[in-house]
Every structure is written in structure tokens, then in C-alpha cells.
């Protein structure tokens, strides 16, 4: 998927994305319904259709599990600490236990929200399976019409017509069959990069770290590199060095040349005319980051 830093012509602010979903026309669907082999082959085209909500469900379950483990471990540690102290007063013990109860209440609220999110993703998986199971000769026209609307919504999202996509999905009652939330999340990150902010993109990278590593993506490194450059531009040399040690050093094995150039910026003023370290080059890096934000909607 390719994204452009320019807003779409209808006023929506995000990157334009090339349509990659294979087009399957109503005529093709009708022919497939009459031929079991063609039906199976047409269903194979729907891998992405099922994968997105399933990946989101898995990610939500993992996140809830990690959070619950962390909070429960902290509470148990706190209880053990109170129990092991012989000199603790009743008031202090009551205060610490109250804080632990408050923490458990926060865990409960978090898990309730997580459970609601899991239910939503499970509902979308179920709706999509039912949609695929509905392809037969008796209702092929209705099924094909629904699929056509799905393709239209997908096209609108990829071309940054978000409001139009929402209206079509809601009016056609196919919200569970399209990935509007995924594109909205990608839009938020892209808009932040257009505003020269890397924070939301780094959060996104943290949430998708394993998949980025699997695809050997440079996106997080580019974000870290840009954040380092911004510290240098602000003449925060000590903070920049500390940042480089913490966040850039782990990339040395694969990006040594770029790291060396980045560290060299410490020797130049922000208004230098030396091309590799000039302000104009720094602004160019944000455009470069936008070009590397392609494919975000496919991550869970």
C-alpha cells in the first residue's frame, strides 16, 4: 500500500492509499455459486477480509493478559511486603491495602473494557464468516451486492474518503464487514507525522512491535532517528546523547552508517548550510517517514 502526504480532494486529511483488494464482480459471484470449485477459489481471495479482525482479537487478548499479569503480580508483591513487615502500624497497613484494592478496581475496569473490545472483534469475525458462508445460488444477487459495497467502502478508505465510507457502511449495515477503525487509526498516525509529531507513531510501533520485526521494518528506527534530530535542533545535546544511548544504540548493528551521520549533527548548529545536516533535510525526513508509513492498515 502506498500513502501520499497530500490530503484527498474531498477535504479529508490523510494519505491516499492504492487499492489492492481484488475486484470480484456480481457476475463472477454468480458463476462461482454455480461452480463449487470457483466458489472455493473466490473465497480464497478473502484472506485479508478475515485476517484483520482476527489479528485485532488476538492482539487485544494478549494485551489484556499482559496487563492482568502485571497488575496481579504487583498487588501480590504489595500484600507480601505488608505481611512481612513486623513494625507496620495498623493505619499504615490499612492505607497500603486500600491502595492495592484501588489498583485491583482499576484492573477490573480495564479488563471490562478489554472484554468489550474482545466481544466486538469476535462479533466482526462471526459476521464475516456468516457473510462468506452466505454465498449460494439462492441469494447470490444480495450477497454480490453486499460484497460490492464492501469493495466500495474499502476503496473510499484507501483514497481517504473517510466520511463517505462511514456513511455507506452505516446505511448498508455492513460496518462489521469493513475495517474503518483500522484506517482511522492509521490516519491519526499519518496526520501526526504531517504535523511533525512522532509520538503517536511510536505508540503504534510499540503496539505492533512483533509484526514490524517480522517484516524487518525500518519505520521505528526512522521515528527514533527523527526524534533524536529534533532534540539536536533544539540544542538539547545532553538529552540527545542520552536518547541515542537508550533508543538508537540497539539499531547499531543494522544502521551504523545512519547512526554515525545522526551523531555528527551534534557538531553542527541547527542553522547550518551543510546539506546532510541542514534544517531542510530535517523537514525532508518527515516526508520520508510518511513514505514509510505504508501498509499500516494491515497490521493488527
TrEMBL record:
One GO CC term, this protein: cytoplasm
Coiled coil (residue ranges): none
MF (Gene Ontology): ubiquitin-protein transferase activity
InterPro entries, A to Z: CTLH/CRA (IPR024964), CTLH_C (IPR006595), Fyv10_fam (IPR045098), LisH (IPR006594)
Lineage: superkingdom: Eukaryota
Biological process, per Gene Ontology: proteasome-mediated ubiquitin-dependent protein catabolic process
Pfam families (UniProt xref): CTLH (PF10607)
Segments forming domain CTLH: 182-239
SMART domains in the record: CTLH
Protein name (Swiss-Prot/TrEMBL): CTLH domain-containing protein
Organism: Dendrobium nobile
Amino acid at each position: 500500500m502506498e500513502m501520499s502526504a497530500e490530503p484527498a480532494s474531498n477535504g479529508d486529511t490523510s494519505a491516499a492509499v492504492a487499492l489492492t483488494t481484488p475486484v470480484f464482480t456480481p457476475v463472477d459471484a454468480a458463476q462461482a455459486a454455480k461452480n463449487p470449485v470457483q466458489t472455493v477459489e473466490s473465497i480464497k481471495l478473502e484472506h485479508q477480509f478475515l485476517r484483520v479482525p482476527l489479528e485485532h482479537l488476538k492482539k487485544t487478548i494478549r494485551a489484556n493478559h499482559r496487563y492482568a499479569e502485571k497488575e496481579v503480580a504487583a498487588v501480590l508483591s504489595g500484600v507480601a511486603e505488608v505481611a512481612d513487615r513486623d513494625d507496620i502500624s495498623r493505619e499504615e497497613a490499612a492505607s497500603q491495602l486500600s491502595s492495592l484494592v484501588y489498583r485491583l478496581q482499576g484492573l477490573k475496569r480495564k479488563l471490562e473494557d478489554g472484554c468489550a473490545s474482545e466481544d466486538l472483534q469476535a462479533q466482526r469475525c462471526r459476521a464475516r464468516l456468516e457473510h462468506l458462508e452466505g454465498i449460494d445460488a439462492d441469494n447470490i444477487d444480495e450477497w454480490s451486492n453486499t460484497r460490492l459495497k464492501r469493495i466500495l467502502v474499502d476503496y473510499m478508505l484507501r483514497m481517504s474518503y473517510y466520511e463517505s465510507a462511514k456513511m455507506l457502511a452505516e446505511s448498508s449495515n455492513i460496518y462489521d464487514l469493513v475495517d474503518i477503525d483500522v484506517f482511522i487509526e492509521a490516519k491519526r498516525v499519518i496526520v501526526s507525522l504531517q504535523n511533525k509529531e512522532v509520538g503517536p507513531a511510536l505508540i503504534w510501533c510499540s503496539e505492533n512491535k512483533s509484526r514490524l520485526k517480522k517484516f524487518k521494518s525500518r519505520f521505528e528506527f526512522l521515528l527514533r532517528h527523527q526524534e533524536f534530530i529534533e532534540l539536536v535542533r533544539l540544542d538539547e545535546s545532553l538529552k540527545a546523547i542520552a536518547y541515542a544511548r537508550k533508543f538508537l544504540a540497539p539499531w547499531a548493528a543494522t544502521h551504523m552508517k545512519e547512526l554515525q551521520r545522526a551523531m555528527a549533527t551534534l557538531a553542527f548548529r541547527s542553522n547550518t548550510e551543510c546539506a546532510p545536516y541542514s534544517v531542510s533535510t530535517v523537514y525532508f525526513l518527515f516526508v520520508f517517514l510518511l513514505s514509510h508509513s505504508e501498509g499500516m492498515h494491515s497490521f493488527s
